[in-house]
Amino acid sequence: MAMTYAQPMPRRYTRARLAVPALWRQVIRASEKEDVAIVPEPDRSAYTQLEIYDGVLAAFERRDEVAGVLKASADRVIAVQRLREEFGLSHLQATALLDLPLTNECRDRISHRAAELRTALNR
Questions:
Q1: pLDDT tens for each residue of 43-66
Q2: Model confidence at 24, in pLDDT bands (50, 70, 90)?
Q3: Residue 114 domain flag
Q4: Do residues 21 and 93 make contact, with C-beta atoms less than 8 angstroms apart?
Q5: Predicted local distance difference test score (pLDDT) of residue 32
Q6: Is residue 35 part of a domain?
Q7: DSSP letter string over 33-73?
């Protein structure tokens, strides 16, 4: 039996860049699997998740301005830079915001998850 090994990841992929899409897959796809409990990622601290959620929720309040920035940006890198400059977001928050649909349903799920994290951290 031949064994296969995973190819090493190129240097440009860092743990932070790979963790954000996985985090948002948990939030966005939660409604598809209502009967399955969301298990938090083991390598992401709750404080970092809460930081991302707070930044995204603040950007949801200025949804039209965010959409304008995204339309005016030529590519993803420029969009992240402009979101960071204009809204005072961290790199993780801006990257996460690009991966989200700007819908009310998504905002409600994120605010619910942020409230759950706050109560868990305040215990």
A1: 457 788 888 899 989 988 998 999
A2: low
A3: yes
A4: no
A5: 56
A6: no
A7: TTTSPPPPPTTS-HHHHHHHHHHHHHHHHTHHHHHHHHHH-
